Amino acid sequence: MGSIVVVDDHPLMRMAVRVMLEGEGYSILAEADNGVNALEVIRKLLPDLVVLDLSIPKMDGLSVISNLKLIGISSKVLILTSGDSRNFAIRALQAGADGFVCKDDNLNELIGAVKAVLSGYNYFPANTIHILRDNLEAASHESIQLSLLSDREITVLKLLARGLGNQDIAGQLMLSHKTVSTYKIRLQSKLNVANLIGLVELAKRNGLV
Questions:
Q1: Which of 82, 109, 130 is the last residue in one of the domains?
Q2: Is 29 helix (H, G, I), strand (E, B) or coil?
Q3: Which of 59, 84, 146, 174 has the lowest tally of Cβ within 10 angstroms?
Q4: Which pTM value belongs to this model?
Q5: How confident is the model over 94-146, as pLDDT tens digits?
Q6: 163 φ, ψ to 5°?
Q7: Count of other CB atoms within 10 angstroms of residue 23
Q8: What phi and psi values does residue 143 have, to the nearest 5 degrees?
Q9: Secondary structure (DSSP) of 65-122
Q10: Into how many domains does the chain fold?
Q11: Contact (CB, 8 A) for 95 and 104
């Protein structure tokens, strides 16, 4: 039905996951209690699925995912962790995980998640998908706004984001202090932000720093 490696630093949790999944007919190839050992085991055994905790010693779960992607391991990854499920689920999805289950909820959800992921589907809390979609839409909107700026406006925005004051920017670009102030006001208007802090944050989000 599917081969699985279980990664968690709590022996009782590993045992519970093993019993639950073996009861459904899955083959548990190995267990690991830290990220470094997990990476070695996964590279050696190439399981169909890795059930992975995020808070593990030596190398955290997100770093394990990054390393698996880097070396081209195609095993599916299902996160099983505790804590702030919304925040961690978004980070797991962005890192490349295929599913997410919170330990704090009913552990029986794990079986459905494993079936879904091994069948080629993603399995994440609904609010995670909505939040990520909203973030992507916001990023897309900002990209469009930035594409409408002139080269000089982009240059001024970059210098503001690097922490330069109006006087420094004026000297570097051979402009008057008043002209730089005008550019700043224009940027705030075009990018729909209220102040300099908003300009700096937008520039950082879009890789202009």
A1: 130
A2: strand
A3: 174
A4: 0.62
A5: 788 888 888 876 677 899 899 999 999 888 876 655 655 666 556 567 777 88
A6: 95, 10
A7: 9
A8: -60, -40
A9: HHHHHHTT---EEEEEE-S-HHHHHHHHHHHT-SEEEETTS-TTHHHHHHHHHHTT--
A10: 2
A11: no
Please give the C-alpha separations between residue 177 and each of 3, 38, 152, 154, 188, in angstroms, as whole numbers: 66, 57, 15, 17, 17
Asked if residue 79 lies in contact with residue 101, where contact means CB atoms within 8 angstroms, the answer is: yes
- CA 117 to CA 110: how far, in whole Å? 10
Q: Please, what is the angle between helix 166-173 and helix 151-161, to 10°?
A: 140
Q: Which residues of 176-206 are buried (b: 16+ CB within 10 A; e: fewer)?
A: eeebbeebbeebbeebebeeeeebbebbeee
- If asked whether residues 98 and 64 sit together in one domain, one would say yes
Give me the CATH number covering residue 86: 3.40.50.2300
Q: How many CB atoms within 10 Å of residue 207?
A: 6
Written as six digits, the tokens of 135 are 């973030």
Please name the residue that has the structure tokens 């919304």: 86
Q: What whole-number distance in Å separates Cα of residue 106 and Cα of residue 5?
A: 21
CB 145 within 8 Å of CB 188: no
